Amino acid sequence: MAQEEQKQSRRKFLFSLGIIGVIIIAVVTFARDMLLYLFPPKKEKKFHKYLVGKRGEIAVGKAKEIKIGKTPVYVVHLEKEYKVFSGICTHLGCIIRWEEDKGRFFCPCHKGIFDKTGKVIGGPPPRPLDQFRVEEEGDLVFMYVKNKTRGPWA
Ligand code: FES
User: Fold this and answer.
1) Cβ atoms within 10 A of the Cβ of 82, count?
2) Model pLDDT, residue 55
3) Per-residue pLDDT tens for 136-148?
4) Is 91 in the pocket of ligand 1 (CB under 6 A)?
């Protein structure tokens, strides 16, 4: 009899221990999720910063081509600021070129034309050239390119 009671008592104890364990795991998980929600971890840098020129290197109204990887981008010196445009046409993705004598961009594929501010002034492109964020620090001009590195779930 006493042995039977001892077995039952042990069973109850183990059952209670299991329940308490599950409750502790649930509370700890909930608390961790709440903390992550309230204080999200600092995200990775979202942009790459590239030096694209020095102040005074490009005359006002002119552009300079540089390559980011294999992709051309154009740094344009407008009257009050620098702009950096993608060298990819917004029509079907051909590579544009800067026409120095005309002060504009030209896409040879379907004769798309963009002015020095990236605005479409001729041909089929549906929208202006894509622009990159630009910042000047002292005499240097930097552009920022979105970091496309993603995790395996993206
Ligand atoms: S791809 Fe540039 S105009 Fe068509």
Assistant:
1) 19
2) 87
3) 999 999 999 887 6
4) yes
125 Cβ closer than 6 Å to some ligand 1 atom: yes
| pTM recorded for the entire structure | 0.68
Q: Is the C-beta atom of 109 inside 6 A of ligand 1?
A: yes
Kindly state if the Cβ of 123 falls inside 6 Å of ligand 1: yes
DSSP per-residue string spanning the chain: -HHHHHHHHHHHHHHHHHHHHHHHHHHHHHHHHHHHHHSPPPPPP-EEEEEEEETTSS-TT-EEEEEETTEEEEEEE-SS-EEEEESB-TTT-PBPEEETTTTEEEETTTTEEEETTS-EEESS--SPPPEEEEEEETTEEEEEEE-----TT-
For residue 123, how far is its CA from the centre of ligand 1 (angstroms)?
A: 8
